[in-house]
Design goal:
Blueprint: H1 7-23, H2 29-40, H3 44-59, H4 61-65, E1 67-73, E2 76-81, H5 84-104, E3 112-117
Parallel strand pairs: 2-3
Antiparallel strand pairs: 1-2
Helix pairs in contact: 3-5
Length: 121
C-alpha cells in the first residue's frame, strides 16, 4: 500500500501557491502609498514634533533645556542628556515625566524612558 502524503504538505503547498498568485496581482495605489509612507517614516514627522513639544512640557523648562528627545522604539523613548549629573536628575524625575507623557500622548504607548549622555543641539 502506498504511503499517503501528509496533510500539512498540501496546506503548505496551497499557501505557497496563494502567495505567488496574490503577489502578482495589481496593487491598489492607496496600499502602495501607505506602505511607502510607513517605510520612509514620512508619517512620523508630525508625530515627532508633537512628541518634542510634549516632552518639553512634561520635563519642565530646566530639564528640557538639558535634554533632547531621540527615537521611540517599541514603547521605549530614548532621551539624550547633556551630562551624567543631569542624567541622575532625570532618574529622580523619571516616574513623573513618564506619567505625564503617557497622559498627554496615549497613542504613542510610551512604557519606558532610556536616558543617554550625548550631544544636545
Amino acid at each position: 500500500m502506498k504511503d499517503q502524503p501528509d496533510v500539512s504538505d498540501y496546506a503548505a503547498r496551497r499557501q505557497r501557491e496563494e502567495r505567488r498568485f496574490y503577489g502578482r496581482r495589481p496593487k491598489k495605489i492607496s496600499d502602495v502609498i501607505a506602505q511607502l509612507i510607513t517605510a520612509r517614516g514620512y508619517g512620523r514627522i508630525g508625530t515627532d514634533e508633537q512628541l518634542v513639544a510634549t516632552w518639553q512640557t512634561a520635563a519642565g523648562e530646566t530639564l528640557a533645556k538639558a535634554s533632547r528627545v531621540g527615537k521611540l522604539r517599541r514603547g521605549t523613548l530614548e532621551v539624550w542628556v547633556a551630562n551624567s549629573t543631569m542624567m541622575q536628575e532625570f532618574g529622580f524625575e523619571k516616574a513623573r515625566i513618564l506619567a505625564a507623557l503617557q497622559r498627554d500622548l496615549p497613542d504613542a504607548k510610551i512604557r519606558e524612558l532610556r536616558f543617554r549622555v550625548g550631544p544636545i543641539s
